[in-house]
User: Which sequence fits this backbone?
């Protein structure tokens, strides 16, 4: 069979001593930069590009890919332990993951995140190998109108992220959308609400916003109520999830893998929606949805699986279409061109050893990451025992350096401080930051796609309904909204099932 | 011009003899005003490596992205003029920017000590794969006839693809509907699925798709054909005069950098372009190294002046029309 | 966010003039919206069919403002949790630490920015032990220099003043 031959070729390439070593180095560096708030894979891969000049292209790309998915693993660690999402995709993990850490279940949260990610990574790798080519055809059905409808669907999800009032969560989504409009206008190049600050001309950056609103605001809140924080530190639970927890997490991981992997194929960075979608599904189908936001393990397992599956399938548009779906993939395009490989639909046929070698190395890399990460859980959990008076200055310096290094910009550091203040005010006022971040992330894409779609249709809104894929997505969004607004239906049904 | 540079170098040599002999004594920072991974960033990283070897100090790349590259250049222009801060400017930051950014805080022609052109990447005109036109001539006729019914994609206001696209439209005299994207990737994606009709962009972004036949190339806007795409005619061959553009990338130092330091950097840059390893990498990108007469400080100064003069009227007119 | 360990917040009855969380929250959004409307005022709106740069900022601001107003109104009618005093000490020293880092990093380098910002921020809690904070800050800075500058190779200024 073709697939088997190809995979054999791939494993032959990936299982050389050199490539195994490079894969391992990549995973290690990736885990490290993922854990460090702010630094992230983009800066790291950029720094390491010249070092790869001496390597052969396959080895170089295997290492760089390792950094990328290694950073996904590492990022969930920071999200769980200190409530700082390094990327949009780990926002969801903070919701229940950090709550679990606060309850002394950090070990279980980190363990299930690693295991869930590993499973998702394995499945996604096979998925890429078997279905990569046909699926790109599907992805090509997505034009601006389809993306817009997908984003609308995503916004409907956001209401489910709320732990408290849905109305206040909706208002936060709108605040996020509003923040996303800051910056240069897409069509005319006019500056919008930048207050004359040059750094705002490209809009508000995700990292300062997320780090300020989540990380720093959380620090100030912890300083405010030392009792809560010290009670937490007293109890450090088991280092691994229990068998019951693993059983409980299995269906969410399966669903998360599927949904995340599917969204990851979209060349327009669909992977960003994966964890949100997974969380929504888990919360909606849970018997007792009130556990979510208070340390429900499904709220970590599903989104983490979705995140990692999406991270892997995001290679599909890169490798089969030559279209990079996010900043890291754009950098991979750069890495490929530097090594004389032209990204595009021909990579698969012209450089089969690179294509299949990379896919095989992803599977190996995922296995390595579990081996690297599971023993680290014990160390991370011990870190929580560091007295808080030392912990928060350390978080502060890591965040400041990380933020600075993204754009080598002092202004970004100040923005982080400003958003820390905003985040603290929001907490004081009983708002939750997660829906706002979702609104912010989707807002940028949404306005872009809305306006592109309307220019293409010469101003006709019917384009969103007439195009079949777009129409279906909108219909799902409407149905979801109805379900969200009628929680009583759910409750009654559950009651019936229990009898 | 050479004499003046020599005289200036001599004067600076006399004023600060110690500097020339010892420079560089610490790592040099080169600001790349774009995110890592783009064409300018890649070219900067390719030349920085051999430059480091020649100079005996590491040339560190610092990405300072924002506002079409003007954020990074603004910072570089204000840095100490000691030769330890350089910038990789390009056609946008030192050619198109004065027209696009009314509040630009630097003057491309007077606020820098030019070091030299590093490499240029040719511009290609492409259309969707089932585009009715099969060559540039048919394309021009088609574009004129379609007018605003045609969809012209670009990678964002201020991008190379935007400026070169506007210039193309003004030369062939058509007013299409612009579809703005936030990068070449998404624009190409919609072109591959047939939503938009045509665009212009740098060869490095397009060559993979052209070879795979997912987009249709009409012409390359350089005086000579590219070895990466030997079958693609130049614009002049295909009958379009006056559309020869290249997204050149060039190294600048802040104004006031001692002439002997600039001379040392210029020599290191030229050695880097001729370095076998770097040359191969640039060739693979489809990038074109500057010929002898296009190299060095004086040539770059002339290039900047002519580019500002070329882009300003075209872009100003187009920007005014869009508002 | 629910904090089970903190004492239950004081509640206000309906129609009371005491500031509840939701009244303040509504007013906050109302002012944010007003600010954005003011800033978006000069941007051309365009039409629904051909949107201008101002269309989305303006319409979202209006929705947000109306929402904020409704939130405050319903809170005034229904009552709610009384807002608690902000933790001024934490705010001051944490934000101060961030600003100090920003002020020092380019001009002086991480060697100064690290300890200065960390020591200053340490005072955000009354549990601070000055000697320990100084030693810890210096050790962490050394660690960060090795990690970020040498292990990861980031172009971060270490000693900018020489």
Assistant:
């Amino acid at each position: 069979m073709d697939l088997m031959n190809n995979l054999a070729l791939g494993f032959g390439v990936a299982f050389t001593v050199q490539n195994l070593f490079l894969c391992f180095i990549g995973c290690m560096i990736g885990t490290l930069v993922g854990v460090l708030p702010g630094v992230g894979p983009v800066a790291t891969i950029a720094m390491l590009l010249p070092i790869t000049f001496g390597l052969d292209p396959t080895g170089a790309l295997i290492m760089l890919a390792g950094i990328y998915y290694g950073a996904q693993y590492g990022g969930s660690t920071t999200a769980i332990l200190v409530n700082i999402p390094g990327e949009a995709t780990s926002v969801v993990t903070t919701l229940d993951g950090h709550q679990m850490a606060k309850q002394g279940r950090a070990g279980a949260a980190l363990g299930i995140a690693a295991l869930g990610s590993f499973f998702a990574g394995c499945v996604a790798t096979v998925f890429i190998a078997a279905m990569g080519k046909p699926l790109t055809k599907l992805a090509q059905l997505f034009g601006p109108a389809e993306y817009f409808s997908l984003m609308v669907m995503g916004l409907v999800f956001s209401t489910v992220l709320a732990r408290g009032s849905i109305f206040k969560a909706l208002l936060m989504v709108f605040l996020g959308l509003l923040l996303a409009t800051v910056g240069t206008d897409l069509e005319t190049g006019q500056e919008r609400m930048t207050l004359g600050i040059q750094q705002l001309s490209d809009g508000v950056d995700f990292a300062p916003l997320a780090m300020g609103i989540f990380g720093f605001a959380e620090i100030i809140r912890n300083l405010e109520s030392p009792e809560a924080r010290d009670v937490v530190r007293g109890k450090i639970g088991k280092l691994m999830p229990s068998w019951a927890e693993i059983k409980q997490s299995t269906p969410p991981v399966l669903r998360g893998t599927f949904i995340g992997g599917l969204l990851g194929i979209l060349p327009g960075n669909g992977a960003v929606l994966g964890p949100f979608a997974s969380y929504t599904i888990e919360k909606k189908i849970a018997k007792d949805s009130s556990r979510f936001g208070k340390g429900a393990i499904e709220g970590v397992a599903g989104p983490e699986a979705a995140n990692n599956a999406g991270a892997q399938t995001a290679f599909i548009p890169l490798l089969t279409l030559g279209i990079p779906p996010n900043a890291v993939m754009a950098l991979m395009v750069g890495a490929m061109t530097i090594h004389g490989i032209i990204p595009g639909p021909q990579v698969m046929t012209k450089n089969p050893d690179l294509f299949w070698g990379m896919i095989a190395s992803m599977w190996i890399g995922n296995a390595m990451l579990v081996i690297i990460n599971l023993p680290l859980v014990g160390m991370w959990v011990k870190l929580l025992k560091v007295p808080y008076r030392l912990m928060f200055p350390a978080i502060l310096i890591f965040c400041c350096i990380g933020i600075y290094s993204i754009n080598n910009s002092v202004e970004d550091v100040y923005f982080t401080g400003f958003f820390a203040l905003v985040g603290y005010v929001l907490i004081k006022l009983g708002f939750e930051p997660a829906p706002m971040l979702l609104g912010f992330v989707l807002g940028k894409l949404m306005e872009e796609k809305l306006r592109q779609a309307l220019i293409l249709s010469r101003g006709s809104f019917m384009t969103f309904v007439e195009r079949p894929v777009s129409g279906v997505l909108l219909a799902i969004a409407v149905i979801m909204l109805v379900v969200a607004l009628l929680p009583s239906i759910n409750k009654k049904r559950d009651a019936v099932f229990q009898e | 011009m050479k004499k003046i540079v020599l005289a200036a170098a001599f004067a600076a040599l006399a004023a600060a003899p110690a500097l020339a002999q010892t420079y560089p004594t610490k790592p040099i920072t080169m600001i790349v005003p774009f995110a890592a991974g783009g064409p300018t960033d890649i070219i900067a990283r390719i030349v920085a490596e051999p430059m480091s070897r020649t100079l005996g100090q590491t040339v560190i790349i610092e990405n300072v992205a924002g506002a079409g590259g003007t954020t990074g250049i603004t910072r570089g222009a204000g840095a100490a003029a000691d030769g330890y801060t350089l910038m990789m400017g390009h056609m946008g930051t030192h050619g198109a920017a004065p027209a696009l950014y009314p509040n630009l805080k630097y003057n491309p022609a007077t606020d820098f000590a030019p070091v030299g052109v590093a490499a240029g990447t040719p511009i290609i005109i492409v259309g969707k794969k089932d585009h009715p036109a099969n060559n540039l001539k048919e394309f021009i006729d088609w574009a004129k006839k379609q007018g605003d019914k045609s969809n012209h994609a670009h990678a964002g206001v201020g991008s190379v693809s935007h400026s070169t696209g506007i210039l193309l439209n003004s030369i062939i005299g058509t007013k299409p509907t612009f579809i703005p994207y936030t990068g070449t990737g998404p624009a190409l994606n919609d072109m591959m699925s047939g939503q938009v009709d045509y665009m212009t962009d740098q060869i490095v972004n397009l060559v993979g798709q052209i070879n795979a036949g997912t987009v249709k190339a009409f012409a390359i806007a350089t005086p000579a054909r590219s070895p990466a795409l030997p079958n693609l005619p130049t614009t002049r061959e295909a009958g379009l005069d006056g559309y020869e553009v290249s997204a050149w990338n060039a190294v600048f130092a802040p104004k006031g950098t001692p002439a002997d330091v600039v001379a040392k950097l210029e020599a290191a840059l030229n050695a880097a372009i001729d370095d076998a390893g770097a040359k191969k990498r640039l060739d693979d990108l489809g990038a074109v190294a500057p010929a002898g007469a296009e190299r060095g400080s004086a040539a770059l100064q002339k290039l900047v002046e002519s580019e500002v003069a070329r882009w300003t009227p075209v872009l100003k007119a187009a920007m005014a029309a869009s508002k | 966010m629910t904090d089970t360990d903190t004492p239950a917040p004081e509640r206000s009855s309906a129609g009371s003039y005491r500031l509840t969380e939701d009244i303040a929250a509504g007013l906050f959004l109302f002012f944010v919206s007003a600010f954005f409307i003011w800033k978006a005022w000069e941007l051309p709106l365009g039409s629904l069919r051909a949107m201008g740069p101002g269309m989305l900022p303006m319409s979202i601001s209006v929705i947000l403002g109306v929402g904020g107003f409704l939130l405050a109104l319903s809170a005034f009618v229904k009552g709610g949790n009384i807002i608690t005093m902000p933790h001024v000490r934490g705010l001051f020293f944490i934000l101060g630490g961030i600003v100090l880092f920003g002020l020092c990093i380019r001009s002086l380098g991480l060697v100064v920015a690290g300890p200065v910002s960390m020591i200053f921020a340490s005072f955000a809690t009354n549990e601070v032990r000055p000697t320990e904070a100084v030693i810890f800050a210096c050790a962490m800075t050394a660690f960060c220099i090795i990690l970020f500058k040498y292990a990861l190779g980031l172009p971060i200024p270490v000693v900018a003043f020489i």
In short: The mean pLDDT of chain C is 85. The first strand of chain C starts at residue 11 and ends at 12. Chain C touches chain B through two residues (CB under 8 Å). Helices of chain C lie at 21-40, 55-78, 88-107, 110-122, 130-151.
